C-alpha cells in the first residue's frame, strides 16, 4: 500500500476498499478561514442539528481579508468569532494570533504525520509534506465534518515523482514543484495523489517540502504526500500534543505512473501568466519588467524563505518605482525575522514589511495591482486578475528570484546581484 | 428532471478566480455573488445569462480555489447545469454537496457551440443539442453522488440519514 492508502485505512470503518470507491473517513482536523467558514457556519445552522462531533478538531484561522479590509469582511470575521465563542472552539486564531493558515498549523503542532486533514481552503494539501493526507474541500464538506467528524472521499490512485541529482544554486522546493507542474500541467494530477520523494527531496528541510506539497493542487491533485522522516519527526516532536504515526509506502505499493527528474537539469523556475504550468528556467525568461514583488504566503512566507531574501537584499536598495512587499507568514516567523535582523534588512532596502495575511495573494488587499501592472510573487497562483485588475499579470517564483528582481526591477537571477 | 437553455461556451482551465473573483468574497450572499458570476472570463455574462441556460466548458473547469462561492454564484445566476470535458476535483465535490448539477462529456464539450439550444436529462445523463440535432451521453454519476442530489445536497443527506 501507499502512504495515502495506509492513512485512509487507519481512518475508515470500511474494511476493504479499492481505488475509485467512495468511503467515509474520520477527520483529525477540519480547518476553515474567514472566507470559507461563514458558508460552513451557515450550512451548520441550516442543518439545525446543533451537534459538533469534536470541537478540539475544528480550527478557524482569520487570515484572508485580515486585518479586516472593509466592513463586509469585518462582518464575516465577526460571524466566525461569534460562532467559535458560542461553541467553545478553542482553535480560533484571531487578531495578533493570526498566521497564514498553512504556515501556522504545522508550527502550532495541530497537524501531524499520519493525520487525515480537510480544510476549506485548496492549499490544505500543504500538510502532505509532513506525511499526512491533507486535502482541500468546500465549506459544505467542512460543515459536514464539524457535525459528523467525517468526510466522504473517492479513494485516489497515486502518481510517484522522484527527484534525484544535486540541487543547483538558488534552487529550492518552489523551483522543483514549479518544474513538476510545468511538466504535467495544471490538470496533470487531477484526482490523484502525488507522492514525491527521492534524495533531492530528502535533502530539503521541512519548509521547502511544505512549499512543494502546497502546490500539489496546482496540478489538480487531491494530495501531495512526502514521506515523514527524521527531519519531520524532529520538527513535530517538539510541537505535537497528541500521538502521531510515520507511514512509508510498501515496496510493492501500486502507482499509476512513475517519473524521475534530475535536479542537475533544473534551474530556478518562473511561472508566466496566467497558469502555474507556464514555467521557464530563469535563463529563458528574457526581459520582463515588474512593478511589484510579493514575498510571503502559505507557499513561501516561512523563516527559511525570508533568510534567503534577506541574504540577497542586504545592503542593497529596492529598484526605484518598485513596491516590494514582505509578509512573514506567522507571528513566530515575524519574531524570528526580527531577532535575526531580517526585518531591518528589508526595511533598510526599501521594502514594505506587513503583518501575516493572505492579502495580496488572492487580490484581497495589501498589494493590489493596477491595470497593466506586473507582479512577481512567491505565492502559488497567477490566474487572470488574481492579484488585482484583470489586465494585470502575476509571475511566480521562489524567494531568491523574487528578492533579486526587487533590486533590479525586472525578473532576475540572484547571480546578477550577488 | 430536464434542463433546457442556451449555451455559454468557455475554454479549458476556467479557474475559480474567473468564476467568482476573490475581490467579491467578502460576502457569501448568492444574490450578490450572482452579479459577478463568470465576470473575469466574460464581463457580460451576468447581464446576458437567462434562467435555465447552460455553461459548456473544456477540461479542468473550476480549478484553483476551494471557494464554494463559485458553484453558488453559477447556480444563483440562473444557470441550470454545467457540462465540461472534466472538472477540477474540489469544484466537482462542491457542486454535488450544494446541489449544482454538473455533467462530464468530452464529446459534448468539444462539439456544442456558443448559443446552441440544448436539453439535458439529469436522470439519464443524455445531452441533446436541439440546434444541431446531435445527442451525447454524460459519464455516469456514482450512486453515492446520486443520493446526494436526490436528498438535496450533503447537509440534507446528513439530516435524513444521520451520517455522511
Task: Describe this protein with a few key phrases.
heterodimer, A: 418 residues, alpha/beta, Aconitase, domain 3, 2 domains, five-stranded parallel sheet, globular, B: 164 residues, seven-stranded mixed sheet, 8 helices
Describe the structure.
The complex is a heterodimer of chains A (418) and B (164). Chain A is an alpha/beta fold. Chain A folds into 2 domains: 3-260, Aconitase, domain 3 (2-Layer Sandwich); 270-416, Aconitase, domain 3 (2-Layer Sandwich). Chain A contains 14 helices and 18 strands. Chain A has helices at residues 3-10, 37-47, 71-86, 101-107, 139-148, 173-184, 199-202, 206-214, 230-237, 297-300, 303-313, 331-339, 342-349, 399-408; strands at 22-26, 29-33, 58-61, 91-93, 116-119, 133-136, 150-154, 158-164, 193-197, 223-225, 257-262, 269-271, 279-281, 292-295, 323-326, 352-353, 374-377, 393-396. In chain A, the strands form 5 sheets. In chain A, strands 4-3-2-5-6 form a 5-stranded parallel sheet. In chain A, strands 16-15-14-17-18 form a 5-stranded parallel sheet, with helices on one face. A 4-stranded parallel sheet of chain A has the order 10-9-8-11. In chain A, helix 6 (173-184) links the parallel strand 8 and strand 9 (193-197). In chain A, helix 2 crosses helix 5. The longest helix of chain A has 16 residues, at 71-86. Chain B is an alpha/beta fold. Chain B contains 8 helices and 7 strands, in the order E-H-H-H-E-H-E-H-E-H-E-E-E-H-H. Chain B has helices at residues 16-19, 30-33, 45-48, 69-76, 89-98, 106-111, 143-151, 154-161; strands at 2-9, 54-57, 81-84, 102-104, 117-121, 126-129, 135-137. Chain B has a 7-stranded mixed sheet with strand order 4-3-2-1-5-6-7. In chain B, helix 7 packs across helix 8. The model of chain B has no long low-confidence stretch (mean pLDDT 96). At the A-B interface, helix 2, helix 3, helix 5 and strand 7 of A face helix 5 and helix 8 of B.
Amino acid at each position: 500500500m501507499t502512504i495515502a492508502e495506509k492513512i485512509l485505512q487507519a481512518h475508515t470503518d470500511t474494511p476493504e476498499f479499492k481505488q475509485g470507491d467512495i468511503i467515509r473517513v474520520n477527520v483529525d482536523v477540519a480547518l476553515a478561514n474567514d472566507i470559507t467558514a461563514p458558508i460552513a457556519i451557515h450550512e451548520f445552522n441550516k442543518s439545525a442539528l446543533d451537534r459538533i462531533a469534536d470541537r478540539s478538531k475544528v480550527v478557524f484561522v482569520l487570515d484572508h481579508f485580515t486585518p479586516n479590509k472593509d466592513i463586509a469582511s469585518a462582518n464575516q470575521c465577526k460571524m466566525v468569532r461569534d460562532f467559535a465563542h458560542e461553541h467553545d472552539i478553542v482553535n480560533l486564531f484571531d487578531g495578533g494570533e493570526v498566521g497564514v493558515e498553512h504556515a501556522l498549523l504545522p508550527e502550532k503542532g495541530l497537524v501531524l504525520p499520519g493525520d487525515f486533514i480537510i480544510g476549506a481552503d485548496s492549499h490544505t494539501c500543504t500538510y502532505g509534506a509532513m506525511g499526512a493526507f491533507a486535502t482541500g474541500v468546500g465549506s459544505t464538506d467542512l460543515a459536514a465534518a464539524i457535525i459528523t467528524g467525517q468526510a466522504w472521499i473517492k479513494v485516489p490512485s497515486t502518481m510517484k515523482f522522484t527527484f534525484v541529482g544535486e540541487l543547483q544554486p538558488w534552487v529550492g522546493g518552489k523551483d522543483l514543484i514549479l518544474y513538476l507542474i510545468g511538466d504535467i500541467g495544471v490538470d496533470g494530477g487531477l484526482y490523484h495523489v502525488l507522492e514525491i520523494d527521492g534524495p533531492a527531496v530528502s535533502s530539503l528541510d521541512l519548509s521547502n517540502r511544505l512549499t512543494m506539497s502546497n502546490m500539489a493542487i496546482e496540478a489538480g491533485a487531491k494530495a501531495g504526500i512526502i514521506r515523514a522522516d527524521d527531519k519531520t519527526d524532529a520538527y513535530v516532536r517538539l510541537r505535537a500534543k497528541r500521538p502521531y504515526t510515520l507511514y512509508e509506502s510498501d515496496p510493492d505499493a501500486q502507482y499509476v505512473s512513475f517519473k524521475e527528474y534530475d535536479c542537475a537539469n533544473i534551474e530556478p523556475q518562473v511561472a508566466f501568466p496566467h497558469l502555474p504550468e507556464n514555467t521557464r528556467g530563469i535563463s529563458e525568461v528574457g526581459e520582463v519588467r515588474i512593478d511589484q514583488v510579493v514575498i510571503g504566503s502559505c507557499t513561501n512566507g516561512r523563516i527559511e524563505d525570508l533568510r534567503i531574501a534577506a541574504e540577497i537584499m542586504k545592503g542593497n536598495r529596492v529598484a526605484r518605482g518598485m513596491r516590494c512587499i514582505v509578509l512573514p507568514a506567522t507571528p513566530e516567523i515575524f519574531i524570528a525575522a526580527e531577532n535575526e535582523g531580517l526585518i531591518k534588512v528589508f526595511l533598510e532596502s526599501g521594502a514594505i514589511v506587513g503583518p501575516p495575511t493572505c492579502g495580496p495573494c488572492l487580490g484581497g488587499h495589501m498589494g493590489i495591482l493596477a491595470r497593466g501592472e506586473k507582479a512577481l510573487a512567491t505565492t502559488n497562483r497567477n490566474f487572470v486578475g488574481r492579484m488585482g485588475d484583470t489586465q494585470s499579470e502575476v509571475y511566480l517564483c521562489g524567494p531568491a528570484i523574487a528578492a533579486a528582481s526587487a533590486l533590479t526591477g525586472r525578473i532576475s537571477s540572484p547571480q546578477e546581484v550577488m | 428532471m430536464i434542463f433546457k437553455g442556451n449555451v455559454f461556451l468557455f475554454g479549458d482551465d476556467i479557474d475559480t478566480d474567473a468564476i467568482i473573483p476573490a475581490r467579491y468574497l467578502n460576502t457569501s450572499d448568492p444574490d450578490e455573488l450572482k452579479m459577478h458570476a463568470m465576470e473575469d472570463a466574460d464581463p457580460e455574462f451576468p447581464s446576458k445569462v437567462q434562467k435555465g441556460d447552460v455553461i459548456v466548458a473544456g477540461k479542468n473547469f473550476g480549478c484553483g480555489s476551494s471557494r464554494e462561492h463559485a458553484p453558488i454564484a453559477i447556480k444563483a445566476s440562473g444557470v441550470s447545469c454545467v457540462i465540461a470535458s472534466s472538472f477540477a476535483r474540489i469544484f466537482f465535490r462542491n457542486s454535488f454537496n450544494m446541489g449544482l448539477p454538473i455533467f462530464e462529456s468530452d464529446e459534448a464539450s468539444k462539439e456544442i457551440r456558443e448559443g446552441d439550444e440544448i436539453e439535458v436529462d439529469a436522470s439519464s445523463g443524455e445531452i441533446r443539442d436541439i440546434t444541431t440535432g446531435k445527442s451525447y451521453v454524460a459519464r455516469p454519476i456514482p450512486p453515492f453522488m446520486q443520493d446526494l442530489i436526490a436528498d438535496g445536497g450533503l447537509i440534507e443527506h446528513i439530516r435524513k440519514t444521520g451520517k455522511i
